[in-house]
Amino acid sequence: MEIQYFQRKIAILILILIGALYGSYQLFNKKIDKPIYRFGFLVEHSVLTDDIDYYEFSSTNEYLEITEIQQINQKIAEKLVQEKVMLFSSLFERQRVGYKGQHTEYVDCPEAYKPIYHEVPVTGGLLRYFVGFANDRYVFGSCDRETSKNYAVNAFLFCSTSGRLLDIRYFISMASAKSVQPFVEKLSCEKID
Question: Does residue 21 register a pLDDT over 60?
Answer without folding.
Answer: no
